[in-house]
Amino acid sequence: MQIKGLLLDIDGVLVDAGRSVPRGPEALRALASEGVPYRLVSNSSQRSRRALAMRLQSMGYSVDTEEIFTPAVAAARFLVSKRASAYLAVRDEAKEDFQEVGVREDDRRPRYVVLGDMGEDVTYGRLNRILRFLLGGSQLIALGRTRIWRAPDGPALDVGPFVALFEEATGRQAIVFGKPEPKMFEEAAHSMRLKLGDVAMVGDDADVDVAAAKRAGAGLGVLVRTGKYRPGDEARYDPPPDEVHDSFPDFVDHFLSAVRSAAGSP
Ligand SMILES: [Mg+2]
């Protein structure tokens, strides 16, 4: 199988414990100079992709904003393709991912409500406003189902519990973007004009990154032994990874030597 593009998880793969992994920036540059298309795939719904790109740049990575793919980016592409209006229940700094592609905001009769991590912006009034949109016929789009994230001062509610709250209240399921949902991997591949079957997913989570991408149809699932990896993860989930490497740069070394030998063979 020939892999034509890569989906790279950010936390635990490019970044570990708040800094870039050793040789990470050089490995990403090597992929770019070899002409391998890639997307950096994160489940974060707190920040815009421009803010994520700036964070990676501060750690030494050469990253363009367009190379970052988040649930908000996937949802914005979906809304534009449907020419649909939306009420954006996300942090203000996450709104620009929708605004820059021209999603029409509507706070009267939106066709969709986009629910992300609202952080301190959550109020009972705002929750009921969303509830009333949904009871009036708007459809809920969730930017993931992550339950808890680790804030600097301790565990904090992520978007998942709020998705469950509205599903319980309305009896209707949300459309969910974000890993491990198949749509997230598909949209990320399509944003490179590739089919998911021609793409490899590289992650530190054997379940949510690797097994989920393979179930969705990714051509190759690669587990790296950094970030949240724990010994035994290779065999813990179904399907298991196709390849396991000690780190993202080790994977890139292996991948590029295969690309070069394929290009050099008659
Ligand atoms: Mg990760």
TrEMBL record:
Family annotation (Gene3D superfamilies): HAD superfamily/HAD-like
GO molecular function, one term: phosphatase activity
Keywords: Hydrolase, Magnesium, Metal-binding
Cofactor requirement: Mg(2+)
Endpoints of the signal sequence: none
Top-rank lineage group of the source organism: Bacteria
This protein's record includes keyword Magnesium: yes
Keyword Hydrolase tagged: yes
GO cellular component, as recorded: cytoplasm
InterPro entries: HAD-like_sf, HAD-SF_hydro_IA, HAD-SF_hydro_IIA, HAD_sf, LHPP/HDHD2
PANTHER family according to UniProt: 4-NITROPHENYLPHOSPHATASE-RELATED, HALOACID DEHALOGENASE-LIKE HYDROLASE DOMAIN-CONTAINING PROTEIN 2
Family: Belongs to the HAD-like hydrolase superfamily.
Entry protein name: Haloacid dehalogenase-like hydrolase domain-containing protein 2
Originating species: Thermobaculum terrenum (strain ATCC BAA-798 / CCMEE 7001 / YNP1)
